[in-house]
Amino acid sequence: MQEVGGSIPPSSTNSFGASQPLSVRLTPTPPMIDKILGRYTVFFGIALVAVGMLVGFGAMLVNPNSVFVKAIGLVPVGFIFLLTGTVVALLGSGNK
Predict the structure, then answer these.
(1) Could you give phi then psi for residue 61, rounded to 5 degrees?
(2) How far is CA 7 from the centre of its chain?
(3) Per-residue confidence at 5, pLDDT binned at 50, 70, 90?
(4) d(CA 28, CA 36)
(5) Which residues have C-beta within 8 Å of that of residue 92, sequence separation ≥ 6?
(6) What number of helices (H) and strands (E) belong to the chain?
(7) What is the Cβ-side half-sphere exposure of residue 14, based on CA atoms within 13 angstroms?
(8) Confidence band of 32 (pLDDT split at 50, 70, 90)
(9) Domain limits of the chain?
(10) Is residue 13's pLDDT more than 80?
(11) Interatomic CA distance for residues 50 and 55, integer angstroms
(12) Label partner for 34 (CA 20 to 30 A): which of 9, 16, 69, 86?
């Protein structure tokens, strides 16, 4: 039998990008951007719903003629952002 000398080529052991610096391995790739955008859109929608309900209904209880009662209109807009963010995060680019 013939013995093969030398070492294992680095390309055959680099299956997870371990030779690259951590900052290069953690940069977002295009499929991750969809999930990040969707996540922040969901968070923004939650914030809009919370602000609309707290400010709008709070103002309605204190003074029904207050201009802050119109903040209730933020609630449906927040739900639109919630739905949009969920769709973008789950159905964006898929697993490529």
Answers:
(1) -70, -35
(2) 43
(3) low
(4) 9
(5) 31, 34, 35, 37, 38
(6) 4, 0
(7) 9
(8) confident
(9) 29-91
(10) no
(11) 8
(12) 16
